[in-house]
Specification:
There is one protein chain. The protein is mainly beta. The protein has two domains: about 180 residues, Immunoglobulin-like (Sandwich), CATH 2.60.40.680; about 190 residues, no CATH class. It contains three helices and 35 strands. The strands form nine sheets. Strands 19, 20, 21, 22, 27, 28, 31, 34 and 35 form a nine-stranded mixed sheet that branches. The radius of gyration is 29 Å and the shape is elongated. The two termini are about 60 Å apart.
Length: about 400
């Protein structure tokens, strides 16, 4: 560390400790204030590519010098992330320098810069929490008691709740230069003012756009969407999931995907497509369920159940076995009614043509080697993993 910088840090610590000792007689303490922060009106369209600007505004009665606050955004509304000068991803949050700002400009040769510096992080102190701190190295005053402080650039995911959403403002503090008396002498000190917690609102339209993707390598995926997809495009298959035997997941093929109905997806050659639809606010739920398959509308943390993975043997429903998994919005996991300590669940496609439940797990089925047929009815001597065949009149996904 540079010697001069080390000396400055030591000097700063010395001054702080001296001030703390001088004010130990309670001549200084934090104060409460009825001043508060509001958010500008904002309406977003779920799944849109648009960057929205959410403004943060001060409604005050005195001149401040700095502020800090936490803003908890609703699930599905996140700040845009950009790289800073060091390549670190940071939320795109800027000091407001337009009309009605409270910051002055420092003029230099060929440039104008704000009198204050803004630092922001997202998700570091809590889920969905944007933390901001604004200060001046020379303790410059704001230029007005009220005005716009910052702009938060954000995007709305397909899964944000339609209608009104809460945005919570907490840990909001402002500082001001004030005259205080220390040991009988008047001096200037930085006084902290604590604002009351506050809840603001943003609005999400009741129409959403979501992209569904299945990789060509894995061929299998999962999804849950907040609107109906009445007709599936060619090359994409959707399956609801049930279980009738321990360690077996039965897949029932669907011709459409209903709102808030989690499904497994299959695309032999991979698939990517964008879908849109109207969202019924009354049907909104943070977790959607259909039989034993669950879909995350709000991201979930799970350590029990089965999740699609490819661990080198192709895609299977592997048991979480106590390992923590982050299930992102729009993805699914399986919670079977049977539990036998299985490492994974076998996926059997049930097309309704046979009584599968009476065949799978029977002594006869266990002793005989299955005979595989291709989907066009030809016998296959060497069936390949991750391909669908006909066995005993039913569609079966061969796992290994």
């Amino acid at each position: 560390m540079d010697l001069r910088l080390r000396r400055r840090i030591l000097l700063f610590l010395t001054l702080v400790c001296s001030a703390a000792g001088a004010l130990a007689d309670n001549t200084y303490h934090q104060k409460e204030t009825d001043d508060y922060v509001t958010l500008g009106d904002l309406t977003v369209e779920p799944g849109s590519n648009e960057e929205y600007q959410l403004t943060v505004n001060l409604n005050g009665t005195q001149i401040y010098t700095a502020f800090e606050m936490d803003i908890e955004l609703p699930s599905g509304l996140e700040p845009v992330m950009v790289k800073d000068s060091k390549g670190v991803m940071r939320p795109k949050v800027w000091l407001w320098m337009g009309e009605n700002t409270v910051f002055s400009l420092i003029e230099g040769p060929g440039y104008n810069i704000p009198s204050h510096t803004l630092v922001a992080s997202y998700g570091a102190v809590g889920k969905n929490i944007l933390r901001m701190s604004c200060y001046s190295g020379t303790v410059e005053n704001f230029t007005a008691t009220s005005g716009t402080l910052v702009t938060i650039y954000c995007k709305a995911s397909p899964y944000i709740k339609p209608g009104k959403n809460d945005v919570c403002i907490t840990e909001c503090h402002f500082t001001a230069n004030e005259k205080v008396t220390v040991d009988g002498k008047e001096t200037t000190h930085i006084q902290q003012y604590n604002c009351k917690d506050r809840t603001e609102k943003i609005t999400a339209k009741a129409h959403s756009t979501a992209t569904i993707s299945v990789s060509a390598k894995n061929q299998w995926g999962s999804c849950v969407v907040p609107f109906d997809i009445s007709e599936l495009p060619s090359g994409l298959e959707a399956y609801t999931v049930t279980d009738r035997e321990s360690g077996v997941a039965y897949l029932k093929q669907q011709t459409s995907i209903l709102a808030y109905t989690p499904v497994l997806l299959y695309a032999e050659n991979g698939f990517s497509g964008t879908f849109s639809g109207d969202v019924d606010e009354s049907k909104y739920k943070e977790v959607a369920q259909q039989d034993i398959i669950y879909g995350a509308i709000v991201p979930q943390t799970k350590d029990n159940g089965f999740v699609l993975q490819n661990l080198g043997e192709g895609v299977k429903l592997y048991a979480m076995s106590g390992q923590t998994f982050e299930i992102p919005a729009g993805k699914c996991w399986v919670m079977p009614t049977f539990s036998n300590g299985a490492k994974y669940m076998e996926m059997v496609i049930d097309d309704g043509t046979t009584g599968i439940g009476s065949v799978v797990g029977s002594d006869k089925a266990a002793k005989q080697q299955p005979v595989y047929y291709s989907l066009d009815g030809k016998r296959v001597e060497n069936p390949l993993p991750e391909k669908i065949y006909i066995v005993d009149g039913q569609k079966v996904l061969k796992l290994k």
